[in-house]
Design a protein that fits this description.
Largest interface: A-B, 34 and 38 residues
Helix content of chain A: 10-25%
Oligomer: heterodimer
Number of strands of chain B: 5
Radius of gyration of chain B: 17 Å
CATH architecture of chain A: Roll
Number of helices of chain A: 3
CATH topology of chain A: Thiol Ester Dehydrase, Chain A
Radius of gyration of chain A: 16 Å
Order of helices and strands of chain A: EHHHEEEEE
Order of helices and strands of chain B: EHHHEEEE
Largest sheet of chain B: 5 strands, antiparallel
CATH topology of chain B: Thiol Ester Dehydrase, Chain A
CATH superfamily of chain B: Hotdog Thioesterase
Strand content of chain A: 35-45%
Structural class of chain A: alpha+beta
Low-confidence stretches of chain A: none
């Protein structure tokens, strides 16, 4: 995977969009890898018992999948310096699975330090699920 | 029980060490859809300048949440985990976490405030190696929903 050249990047450049599928199996795998075993992310009956419409994805899964899109755009996952978000809406994951669509736009490029700021928009069923989602990557 | 505001400024003793191994990095990468070989191929990671396979940027949450448990589960803190919703998360990475790291976490309670009948709790977890090399600063906002009960 080649690292994107700083000189090739301009404010306004698009990142993605990339469609990422998410299934119940994805959430079990994420629960095991992250250590977050909250049953609202795995057990439909439990999720409904606490007032949710169905199983919902971990907010951190959604953030992680969004970060993947930015990292792969940069070309080296070790170059993500900063990454932050608000969790505004849940991603509902019915038995048949769901998708999120991740896209970004380059907001700022610092030619001196190589810091490139990307605003990220992640939607599920057309609804924004993350707020103020911003990543900073370092390019050369 | 309300969230205890007296905990603001409190720092817990370091937790861990949490070992990072290649299998864990690969599992996390797969779960978040990452296909960059730096997560799974040690040679590719070394060619890119890393000591070993690189954790995806949000994998630090695994160690941050393990560290946060001491606070969240502290009865005196007054956090009812069944009412907790994740509000915000932010990572500032000092260097990428790689396989072979032994991660320790140190948690500070930065802020406890009330908003709309809910408690908003901001924590900051400093992740470092056992030898003191800074890895990541992880800031997390949790919302403890108010209401009856």
């Amino acid at each position: 995977m080649a690292v994107r050249a700083l000189s090739s990047v301009s404010v306004g450049d698009a990142v993605g969009p990339v469609t990422v599928p998410v299934s119940r199996e994805t959430l079990v795998a994420y629960a095991n890898a992250s250590g977050d075993q909250n049953p609202i992310h795995q057990d439909e009956e439990f999720a409904r018992s606490v007032g949710l419409p169905d199983v919902i994805a971990h907010g951190m899964w959604t953030m992680g999948a969004s970060g993947t899109v930015v990292a792969e755009w940069a070309g080296d996952a070790g170059r993500v310096l900063e990454f932050g978000t608000r969790f505004t809406k849940p991603v509902v994951v019915p038995q048949a699975g769901a998708e999120v669509v991740v896209e970004g736009a380059v907001k700022a490029v610092d030619a001196e330090t190589g810091r490139v700021t990307v605003d990220v928009t992640t939607t599920s069923d057309g609804v924004k699920v993350l707020g103020r989602c911003v990543a900073v990557v370092r390019l050369d | 029980m309300a969230v205890n505001p007296d905990f603001v400024g409190r720092t817990y003793p370091p937790s861990g060490p949490y070992p990072v191994d290649a299998a864990l990095v690969a599992d996390f990468a797969r779960a978040v859809g990452a296909t960059d070989p730096v997560h799974t191929d040690a040679e590719a990671a070394r060619a890119a300048g890393y000591a070993d396979v690189v954790a995806p940027p949000t994998m630090a949450v695994r160690f941050a949440q393990a560290t946060e448990a001491a606070y969240v589960e502290d009865a005196e803190a007054g956090i009812d985990f069944s009412r907790v919703v994740h509000g915000e998360e932010r990572f500032v990475h000092h260097r990428p976490i790689t396989a072979g790291d032994e991660v320790v976490g140190s948690l500070t309670v930065d802020q406890v405030r009330e908003a709309g009948g809910h408690a908003m709790v901001t924590t900051r977890t400093e992740l470092a190696t056992t030898s003191g090399e800074a890895l990541s600063t992880v800031t997390s906002l949790i919302v403890v929903r108010g209401g009856e009960g």
